[in-house]
Amino acid sequence: MSSATKINWFRFASPQTFYPLAGRLWALFALLAAGFAVAGLWVSFFVAPVDAQQGQGYRIIFIHVPAAWMAMFLYVVMAAWAAVGLVFNLRLASMMASALAPTGALFALLSLWTGALWGKPMWGAWWVWDARLTSTLILFFLYLGFLALQAAIDDPRRADRAGALLALVGVVNVPIIYFSVKWWNTLHQGASVSVTRSPSMASVILWGMLLMVMACWMYAAAACLSRVRSIILERERHADWVKDAVAQSR
Length: 250
Hints:
Number of domains: 1
Number of helices: 8
Strand content: under 5%
Helix content: over 70%
Number of strands: 0
Low-confidence stretches: 1-5
Mean pLDDT: 85
Radius of gyration: 20 Å
């Protein structure tokens, strides 16, 4: 590859250069999220067959499972960005961690809410102190703690460091959530999708779930990029380039 065609990705570590890139990408991800969501909901609610044991009620897994996966995945990504910002004192990395937290909290809440809706007819109770449910609730509180800690500290750099420490300590909860069904006797079933064996569900159900996972993934990317642009404008508001960007957008 010639030097003329090489892309210097490191220059996007600057908020000034990343801001316009995020502006171009978030709309693309939002469009992809809408497309995957329409396709996934169609397959999930109109194509997938009725379950022989759970009836129509099982269809909530097309929302519940992707939300649970994304809640765990986004926390790991948030902690990784926070660690990069802490170790390398990289402002944009800390901003990305802050931008991911609200979406991660949303997916954790959605996972708990849909789990309660599913658990009532299946288990006869809205909530049981199941190991996976409890560890997911802790994950939700970790997201809220991260957001509250950053909001409570006026200095953004101190807030980023404090949030990063909390995120790194809390990341140990993610493998606990994932392996809880193996480590303890829980009401949750084992993983139906694994990289080491064939899926234990019908292919049409698997496709519906994967489409919804992609929809959630694209939404998370769009929401994060849109939110990080707002964070950049807020934290860099005294910079001349921000004043020019705001003036051009009016």
